[in-house]
Amino acid sequence: MRAKNLYFLPCVLLLVLSTACNKGKGGEDDPFAGLEKVTYTESDAVFPNPERGFYATRETHNATANPLTAAAIDVARAAGRSLYLFEYYLTDYVACDIADEYLALIRKNFQVIRENGAKALIRFAYSNGYSEKDRPWDATEEQVLRHVAQLKPIFQEYSDVIYVMQAGFVGSWGEWYYTENFYMNPYRTEHYLPRKHLLDALLDALPDDRQVEVRTPAFKMKIYGYALADTLTAAEAHAPTVKARIAGHNDCFLASESDTGTFNGKTDREYWMAETRYTIMGGESCGLSKYCDCEDGENYDGAITTMEKYHFSYLHISYHPQVLGRWKQQNCFDEVDKRLGYRLVLREGGFSATAKADSDYHVVLNMENVGFAAPMNPRDAFLVISSSDGKTVKSYPVNSDPRTWHSGTFTLDQTIKLPATPGKYVLNLYLPDPKATLKDNPRFAIRLANENVWDEKTGFNVLKEITVE
After folding, report:
1. Could you give the count of Cα atoms lying within 13 Å of 111 in the half-sphere of its Cβ?
2. Taking the model in full, what pTM does it have?
3. pLDDT tens-digit profile of 37-72?
4. How far apart are the first and last CA of the chain?
5. Structural domains of the chain in order of their starting residue, each with its CATH number
6. Do 407 and 374 touch, CB atoms closer than 8 A?
7. Which of 203, 276, 283, 270 is nearest to 237 (CA)?
8. Which one, of 44, 37, 41, 36, lies nearest residue 17 by Cα?
């Protein structure tokens, strides 16, 4: 594992922030009234942040496949990516238990991404084709549930680096259509029961802070009896419930008016637009259409508007190549790259004009999420006072959940207690992964989209130098 970072990058302390350190002016409603004000500069850079962005795929068909390498992750991170979709094909085990060698390979891949700063989308399937020669397309329900039981200890052990799980297992590619064991075109309540048994098993196999994605909104509604009136509310979001944990993935995004059968009409679309404010949404396209245009058409939404409405957090970096090519031709690929998921920008900060030892210190941060979605999995947030070499002196939990930092502007307003010892300190915003295995690794901390605030050695976002008297 990479060494933990115990020192501060001195050049960050230059804080080239386009600052305007003036006393705030305004009426009673001005959060900066009486505070020293700092204005920060937004960054246009593409950089990796956890649990968002374009992903690369890793198909595994047998136990002798090569695991992902640290070098490959470093190359991806240099291009601004830190997500992988691991597609595990269980073709050799359609009628038996998964071999220990295959399970060991799955563990190895998880260990490599944990040690090198990536996260995984995961999907399991039995066939990667839908012709006669590709049969069997999937296993029996009994065998599938046996495989989920085998995988459960791995899911529990490595849940820290599981971003989200696509339900998989059913049908070719695990996309829940070409199936011979789970009713290819279910229309009765009992037809959905085998898929419900699978979803229930997957929800049980994963910790209750992780979501499972289904292929269409109709599956969530039909399997669990939800209607448009039942979409998640802010009060229900991110709870350890079936309703809050079933998300969606769209693997024919923008391919047609219905996204090639993903949606059965307006109700399905409205359901997912509402649900995805609080659940993870992503996928890939499967073909070119007018809906792939960057800009809106006369009577239809373009790609950017659609991603905003459905709160897209991730997409395939290689598929569909014609769609990606159109975005590059029409000059919105870079915007998609930066805005998938969250992109948090610090606009202004307000700070107490004086800093007295062991006294209260007021901090106000005006921020904007310019991305398509909020962070979706649990995320810690701290105001951290560090020494000049980057060591934490005091840490204060932020009184706001990053999963509520939806697209748009928001303000963090908090009073902290300064250290009792006078001296020079640095105030930081720190957004680490809460999992014990990752919380001290800066590669899993969220970086703000600002110039000269990020310290890659600590994972801190530098707000201001403070001289405590």
Report:
1. 9
2. 0.93
3. 999 999 999 999 999 999 999 999 999 999 999 999
4. 40
5. 10-45+343-468 (2.70.50), 53-339 (3.20.20)
6. yes
7. 276
8. 41
